[in-house]
Protein 1
Amino acid sequence: MKILVIGGGMAGLTYAIVAAKNGYDVTVAERNPRLGKKISMTGNGKCNIGNANVNASCYNKSAIVSNVLNKISVDEYVKFLYSCGIVIYADNEGRMYPLSDSANGVVDCLREQLEKYGGKTVCGVEASNCRKVGDRYEVRIGGGKYIFDKVVLACGSRSQSLDVNPYTVVSQNMFTPLVPSLTPVKVFNMDGVLNGIRVKADVTLLDGALTLGKQSGEVLFKDYGLSGICIFNLSSIIARKQVQRKNGNYIFSVDLVPSMSQWDLGELLYTRIKAGYERSKLFYGILHNKVAEIVLKRAGGDVSDVSKLSETAKNLQFEFYKLLDYSMSQVTSGGIDDRYIDTDTLSLPDGIVALGEVLNVDGICGGNNLYFAAASALYTFSETERATAYKKL
Ligand SMILES: Cc1cc2nc3c(=O)[nH]c(=O)nc-3n(C[C@H](O)[C@H](O)[C@H](O)COP(=O)(O)OP(=O)(O)OC[C@H]3O[C@@H](n4cnc5c(N)ncnc54)[C@H](O)[C@@H]3O)c2cc1C
């Protein structure tokens, strides 16, 4: 069987390697000059390749996710990676990395496996205009038209690949709206003086009085708004709503002193005022000086109002304006609508198989997106085919 895989990212390479190890005639068409460009960018160059604690709550609601996770366990994924020469360790939060800590090294391993088992690659060419002719498919690749028995679409998304056009193979009508996710957010009421400061905080995303999500971790203040992993994760909640064409009055509430209750913080500030602390020194040792300046400004002029000061430090509010665009986002919310996908085979009505980020599946940070890209590819093979692939090193 002659198979064409469109896209040489994590999903496409995983599919092609398992197919090649099972003796299929497989070709990967990649529009970039080299395979795995996005893999090379992941995890700040270290490649956070999966997560030992992966579960359906790490993703948007999708029947595809539950099916894939039920069939392809983390252990099985690790087995696949091992068979490709990628040995894994997990940090204390379950984030999995290659022992080499090298995303480029992961691409080397995958490319090497594909070549070793006879998988072919054509790079620097775009595949488009896929058309079913009888039982086969005609696809335009670069300047020519070619015939394949099977086509696998693993073309990913526009996140940090701005000129990818996911509609060249599958009609736009089959897609939900696409929205950049895992991205910084612009806010209306940023205090420019905070630009560049990082704090450890608890951040709650509100829509009016409704709590939509909560994350703990580092927040990076930018002149336009907020960044950092916990902001990225909360951005996915907004992005998924936008995919459903829902908007809201979103507020990011930042608790700058998560280790103290509001009451205890108020008591401490009260003690300091009694001890004669100057206004500008009230938050010494608790907050970065510039952050303290903003808390004092937003709490109003009355320094003796400790309950207002502690409330502001525990609930510094930023009004959401917009998600930053694809040039800053790590993943795209939305994709081929689940309605068009056969959840057992991940195929479209005309038989094209769709894998990875081009599907309407997106996960939060921590290795969940690479995991899904690879697991969705493994999912489409039989148990015997997968076992055959894992035995070959
Ligand atoms: C900066 C950054 C950091 C990230 N860090 C992490 C991380 O640490 N952990 C994690 O789990 N996820 C991370 N992600 C997300 C993760 O990289 C993606 O979700 C994942 O790579 C998607 O894999 P994919 O194979 O579905 O798509 P992609 O990796 O996007 O691959 C699709 C490929 O198809 C090619 N293509 C598209 N259209 C065509 C066409 N018509 N013809 C030929 N080729 C085509 C593209 O050039 C691309 O190479 C990060 C993303 C970014 C941008």
Protein 2
Amino acid sequence: MAGTTALIFGTQLYAEQPALQGADRVLMVESAARLRSKAWHAQKLIFILSAMRHYAEQLRQRGILVDYRRAPSFEQALKAHIAEYQPERIQCVPPHEYAADQIMRRRAAQLAARGITVHFTEDDPAFLCARHEFAAWARGKRQLIMEPFYRWQRQRLGYLMDGAQPLGGRWNFDQENRRGAATLPTAPPLPSLVPDTLTQRVIEEVRRDFPNAFGEPEPFRYPTTHAQAAEWLERFIAERLANFGAWEDAMSADDPFLFHSVCALLLNVGLLTPRQAADAAQRAFERGNIPLQSAEGFIRQIIGWREFVYGIYWLHMPAYAQQNFFAHHNPVPSFFWSGETPMRCLAQTISTIRQHAYTHHIPRLMLLVNFGNLAALDPAALTDWFMSVYIDAYDWVMQPNVLGFLYADGGKMATKPYVASAAYIKKMSRGYCERCHYDPNLRVGERACPFNTLYWDFLARHAEKLAKNHRMALILKGLAKRNDLPAIQARAEALRRTWALQSAADRGAEA
Ligand SMILES: Cc1cc2nc3c(=O)[nH]c(=O)nc-3n(C[C@H](O)[C@H](O)[C@H](O)COP(=O)(O)OP(=O)(O)OC[C@H]3O[C@@H](n4cnc5c(N)ncnc54)[C@H](O)[C@@H]3O)c2cc1C
Ligand code: SF4
């Protein structure tokens, strides 16, 4: 038996990796089984493979022995590593995803029987609130709500604080941070990153080995090293953060990125840390370059929402993934893959995802989750779709965001289901409704915007369940005044039937 192996997963590429402490070598694994476990977006495959290979190279340059294995499965790679290096101890940061964590803990017990100790580090730079800290905060609370969690985080971490009080005398600027698209300024473009030789080779490999991957592999524009990620963050802080707050909820058909940071993909694999991102925003505010509403809006996303969903996930797994409060069972429509639909907002969004493996928060919420609820899509199937197509998607963040905002979890994450009709989509967007086949002002008829028809139909179908939620009371009052419900419901049923038939036909064609 010889020494300690640091096992480093592809989503834990930290500059300061806690598992390296006292390690003699590193094991990193590219598992073919994992890479082929879903129809991942081509750019997600490129991103992960390029980031892992760059990371291994950096470790080697620091004089660290890296056993980088490309194997049919993680299991086989681990077995081969143990046979070759005979470690007496393996140490790793606990996996962020429930299933991987469980597998790793079972393996630890098996290895212990063979005299190999598996040690899980306490420290994990990916989160500012550890699982046990969140569980302690949650204990005894009847309902978990993001806002009090966020305030607790602000106080204990000290971001934008004046003693025990929030700077500016307010905890949030949500009212100011919802400006519609009518006033949207032009955003500076994202930095243009040219893929280096290593990334270029990965792009060719993905093109060759994953010809059926979803989406376009190029242009690939994302950072894959710590240095590039740091520069990416710096450019966001200098060029886009100032307007982040005011227009964080606005959408534009011409610019999917607007004033967003496009940092989730980097935070979720350790190329950036949440502390780095929140510190950078705080420093920019202190230098006087950034309005408080923008610094607060961004820090809220990082230390509030991101940490909150991680805590909710770990508190409720594994049962969380199975929930289906509204008993919705429709398949994901085939146009979610092809983008072929006359609904311009959705067609544009799918086209953006195909090109960039990205959209910002509001298309995910106001268009895709909203549509998921209104069209009664099966929550697990929709989560699976989200997992495949977004570059920043991982189980711990996708489950609570999709199931939580759908309200499939019955209110563990959000206080009400996210549903909206075309009026709000129209107000918050530019370039969708103005050029759509459908009319955002109509509820019934062939040209009526499906969001309107389905919205009223959703409220009518679930009125009984929704009536128990006081936040839905005002909305349900509107339903009582609707005298065109029979026509709305007939049209809603026809729309859902068409999408289900298209999906079935496409599945048949594939088979
Ligand atoms: C249905 C749905 C699915 C989502 N799936 C994912 C996902 O798979 N991976 C993911 O990282 N985020 C997910 N989000 C959250 C959020 O939409 C993305 O983090 C964000 O759009 C990424 O773009 P950005 O980096 O430009 O974010 P910005 O708008 O610049 O926000 C800054 C950062 O805040 C964090 N953040 C903000 N909101 C959330 C949130 N609700 N949950 C977690 N982190 C948040 C992210 O790390 C993000 O990078 C999802 C949201 C919804 C509604
Ligand atoms: S009219 Fe309806 S379907 Fe068309 S873009 Fe607007 S919200 Fe989307």
